[in-house]
Write a structure and sequence with these properties.
Blueprint lengths: L3 E3 L2 E3 L5 E7 L1 H4 L3 E7 L6 E6 L5 E3 L7 E5 L10 E7 L8 E9 L2 E4 L3 E5 L2
Length: 120
């Protein structure tokens, strides 16, 4: 299973970015999809998650600013199903490498990460 992130970049405080993570349809059908981030010198932290039944959860630091959502996979062979992280009102503390994660039971898959830098 391959997860591929895109959408990171440099943005000014108060700006917006949308991250995208593509995965196979077989993953989307049962896995919980998560976005994590890791800032320099800090531990990786869970930012947002969405279950296969569309239940979402957010870290307190991003509630009201970030939204996670997913495209429905057309079938288990769909290789272009995506999960998104819409990030609004970005702040310098949001600067980090953002990772897409697919989790089910004891199995985890990770993307390569995409850098988000919030700076004026």
């Amino acid at each position: 299973v391959q997860l591929v992130e895109s959408g990171g970049g440099l943005v000014q405080p108060g700006g917006s970015l949308r991250l995208s993570c593509s995965a196979s349809g077989s993953v989307f059908s049962v896995y919980t999809m998560n976005w994590y981030r890791q800032a320099p010198g800090k531990q990786r932290e869970l930012v947002a998650s969405i279950t296969s039944r569309e239940v979402t959860n957010y870290a307190d630091s991003v509630k009201g600013r970030f939204t996670i959502y997913r495209d429905a996979a057309r079938d288990t062979l769909d290789t272009n199903a995506r999960v998104y992280l819409q990030m609004n009102n970005l702040m310098p503390d949001d600067t980090a490498v953002y990772y897409c994660n697919a989790h089910f039971a004891v199995t985890d898959y990770w993307g390569q990460g995409t850098q988000v830098t919030v700076s004026s």
